[in-house]
Amino acid sequence: MKFLQTDDQTIGDLRLFSKKEQRGIYDIYNNTATRGGELLLEKMFRNPLSDQDAIMERAGIIASLAKLNAAFSFGSGLLDSVEKYLSHHENKDGQKATMGEKEISNGATAIIELLHAVRHYLEQGDIAKVEGLTRERIAMTKLLNDPALEPVFREKSQPKLSYAAVTAFDILFRVKEKNRMLAVMDFIYQMDVFISVAAVSVKRDFVFPVAKPKGSSVVKMEGVYHPELSHPVANSLYMDGSRSVVFLTGANMAGKSTFLRSFSTALYIAHMGFPVAAKLVEFSVMDGIYTTINLPDNLGIGASHFYAEVLRVKQVAAELGAGKSLFVLFDELFRGTNVKDAHEGTVAITHAFAGKKTSLFIISSHIVEAGDELKQKKNIAFHYLPTKMSGTVPDYTYTLEEGITDDRHGMIIIRNEGILETLKNGKKE
């Protein structure tokens, strides 16, 4: 299975995980019932897919479970008992840490009950109605039907075990067949994640993505919005080889960064095979996704913000030079330098990006004057987020339009906030 290339900068830009008091995108999808499910979901978030078949297979499984309104079939208390029992580790001296007789009895009984529940789920649960899970269902059925586990199914699902039986089952579960027991738990965690994400898709009316072959250079999003916003404004954008670069302009507070996060987050989540906050998502499978929205100064190497930007562009250039198909986003490219250098650098780099037809790029900028030179490239499209003025009060539509805007309302906002008066006359009590 191939995985999408990305990095910590992108994961941080998209706010995939919670930080301090801010929730992450992960938290929206995390409706899991088990700790193992939580950890598996996090692993999926950190390792999106770069394989069309794998993406569509996972999306199909989750969509089928969503249609069935599937519920997780295993009790959290039972799973806690099994996890605690199976994870009883060796002590520092390499010796097996001792478990009490009652703990061993409870653990062995819990596994027997769980294995009965798994068999029942495989035979009569929702998994039997999901074609995409046929392989997992067959593999798990084969595992449970192994002769080594016959004693388990001769017992009742909640047995009263003798001391001798407890001892025999303890050796079976924690020594002889421990790998099988761990495989059963992994299967349960996988179902936990799929059912959790399916429930989120139903609750939030998310759409399932359609993955296109790698190299086809297309992203089509209709009605995409940021899932963390309570009253989001949806937007649509189409990119392909004939418009592989989007140059985005708009005043401060017009919503550029929010749109950029909405679009790139949807594309990232789509590569996981998860449903996304949009009405339609079709995309070419990429080799990697790299965003640059909040780029910190690299004080560790004495780098200014501008030099950190240069290094980031260099990193992306190296990946593109290796022939990879990427989605690349730069919010306010070269904001860390003077206007003249930012203008020249933005034009030069955007022109170079336009020559990479198998990759897709979005560049936002306040350097609207660069637009005239960028129009020389036919595959650069221009979009902006407008500002409507009501007297001296700016009104933001947050709705993407085609073209370039030279809206600049920084001084209007400064005056509206009374900053100059405060500096001149002092703060009024």
From TrEMBL:
<protein>
    <submittedName>
        <fullName>MutS-like protein</fullName>
    </submittedName>
</protein>
<dbReference type="InterPro" id="IPR000432">
    <property type="entry name" value="DNA_mismatch_repair_MutS_C"/>
</dbReference>
<keyword id="KW-0547">Nucleotide-binding</keyword>
<dbReference type="InterPro" id="IPR027417">
    <property type="entry name" value="P-loop_NTPase"/>
</dbReference>
<dbReference type="GO" id="GO:0140664">
    <property type="term" value="F:ATP-dependent DNA damage sensor activity"/>
</dbReference>
<dbReference type="InterPro" id="IPR036187">
    <property type="entry name" value="DNA_mismatch_repair_MutS_sf"/>
</dbReference>
<dbReference type="GO" id="GO:0005524">
    <property type="term" value="F:ATP binding"/>
</dbReference>
<keyword id="KW-0238">DNA-binding</keyword>
<feature type="domain" description="DNA mismatch repair proteins mutS family">
    <location>
        <begin position="243"/>
        <end position="424"/>
    </location>
</feature>
<keyword id="KW-0067">ATP-binding</keyword>
<dbReference type="Pfam" id="PF00488">
    <property type="entry name" value="MutS_V"/>
</dbReference>
<dbReference type="InterPro" id="IPR045076">
    <property type="entry name" value="MutS"/>
</dbReference>
<dbReference type="GO" id="GO:0030983">
    <property type="term" value="F:mismatched DNA binding"/>
</dbReference>
<dbReference type="GO" id="GO:0006298">
    <property type="term" value="P:mismatch repair"/>
</dbReference>
